[in-house]
Each structure stands twice: as C-alpha cells, then as structure tokens.
Amino acid sequence: MTATKGIAQNNNILTQGSFEHYEEGRFVGWYFPNTTYFKKIDNPEEQRTPQSTKCVMVYPRERAHFETTETTPVLVAGNRKYEVGIWVRGKKAGCELTLSCMLYKQNKFVGTIDNFCTVKCTTKWEQTIGELTIPADADRCIIRVRISKGSDDFIYIDDMSMVMKNTAPTVPKLSSSDIDITRYQRELDVEWKADNYPKNTQWQVSLNGKPYLTTLDNKCTIKGLKLATVYEVGISAKIGETVTDEVKKKAVTGNLQVTQEASWRVPFLRTIGEDGTCKRTIDLFYTDLADIQADIRYWLDGMEYTPKEDKLTFSSAGEHTLEIIIKEPNGQEWELYYKVNVTEK
C-alpha cells in the first residue's frame, strides 16, 4: 500500500467509482447492505474537488461494508497487476478501512484477495492506493470496502479507481519438474503443469533446440523419433506478447525389445490393447518396428484404408477387423490381423 498524488482516471475500470450517479435511493453500480448507514452528499463545501458534485458519507460502524454490484461486474485480465485507489476524509481521525476483492470466472466464484489495502482516515482528503494481482483463472471481480476500525463520527469517500499497471502480465515460472515425459520407441508423450496459466496460453514446444509445435493444450506427442536416442524437449509459455524462458528436459527413446534380425520380432500397434479394445480413432504408433521407412498397408473391415496424419478411425463403436501388412526395407515382412472392440462412440 502506498499513498500517491493520484492515478489516471481515463483507464479507470471502476466506472461508477466517482459516486456521481444516484438513482432511487442508491448509488448506481454499488451495493450498500441495510446494516451499513450511508448518505448522498452534494454540498459543495464537503466535496473533494469543485468538479465533484457528489460523494458518499458512511457511518463507520465496525464491520460495516459496501461493494460493487454483481449486476455491473468489474472486468479484469488474469495475470495482471492493478492499482485500486480510494479518497477518504473523516470528521475525526482514527477510522480504518480495508479493501478486498472477490474473484469470478464469468458467474463462478473462484476466490478472494482479502485486505489487500488498509486505509487510515485523517481529517483531510487523502488518497490511498492498494495493489493486487488478478490470478489467471479470473475475468471479473467485486471490490469491497469494509470498516475495520470504527469511529463515532462520519467519514466521506469519493473517487475510487482501479487501473491496470503499465506492465507486462505476470507469468508464472515453469520448472523441469513440472514436465512429465513418457518414453516409447518412436514417440515421446510430453505433459506439463498449466494450473497457474490462463486458458489462452500458447505453449511453444521445441525438440533439440528447434521449434516443434505451438499448442493451446498442455500436452503433446513428439513422433517419428529414432530408437534409443537422447532428445531434449523445451517448453515455453506465451501470454499475449510475453514469452517465458524455455524450460528443458532430456529423455531417451526406447530400443527394440529384441534384435532387428531376430526371427521372432513382430512389430505391433501399441494403441490397441492386448484384449483388442481401443478408441474409435487410434494413433498408428508401433512397438518393435525397426525401420520407420517401412511400407505399411491397412485393410479395415476388408476394405483397403489410407490413414491420415498417422491416425486410423473406425466407422463406429463395436467389433471391427483390421489387417496390416508391413514390409521393412531389409526384406522382413509381417501380416498382422486384429479383431478389435471399439469402446468409444
């Protein structure tokens, strides 16, 4: 909390913070419960500035409060810092107020920032400014003013404001321990923690220092890799124009379970369970395929099938047949037959 000369009003998102609009016994945009005694003041001698036509007078009974209304929410941006200002004058010194912030994602309550600012009243108009950071999962808020230390005489409140600080968004840090990599022979399944990041975060994934993909999801599969090879995966977050430092983690792909020349080596799809169950769309990822350049052909329910983007989609849930012919460049050849049960519609 700091006291300053003031903050710019042109970017003030507390649109009714000046208490200038009073209709049907209430200040527009504000909620005063029945337990909080307040009054509209339009006497020029009691205003903070000559330009001000109204302010609010509150009897500072301890724990009395008022707040912005749910019907006119204050729209905010996640991972950004805001300054909340309030002008206060007491008929007597000694009263104290606190500011709190209730956070929402659309209409769902997601948390509270309690007492982010304390205001000590004097007998002169003074502005106090509190600072708070809106978390990633919030897009609107309610600002509450509460009397934390009462007094036996009235206080005046005017020109509240909430302004985004002119800084880049606060971006949480990612560490290598937040990245989980599941290793296969030809693929790496990469997943990372994203709980503290906004949903529109763009994730930039690199492989051995080169860009691999950009995604809005917090997981991806890196495919087409070499057997038994060390790879370095990098993850960085882009929020608006701000990009975090890249966090890197190494992983080693698996090797063949048997030697390439072994007569009993049989490549198989690892995306079909041992009991034949699978999803309706499966990735064509193999175990014990020695050469990634192998010629592979597919027949689905007796009809030749051409996969798209290394994926195969069954026509429906239920039982299907899948035949596969694999020819590796060294002359080894296999014919696989699956009777599958698709469990996903």
TrEMBL record:
Domain CBM-cenC: 11-147
Keyword Hydrolase belongs to the record: yes
MF-aspect GO terms: hydrolase activity, acting on glycosyl bonds
InterPro entries, sorted: CenC_carb-bd
This protein's UniProt keywords: Hydrolase
Domain of life where this protein originates: Bacteria
Identification of the protein by name: Carbohydrate binding domain-containing protein
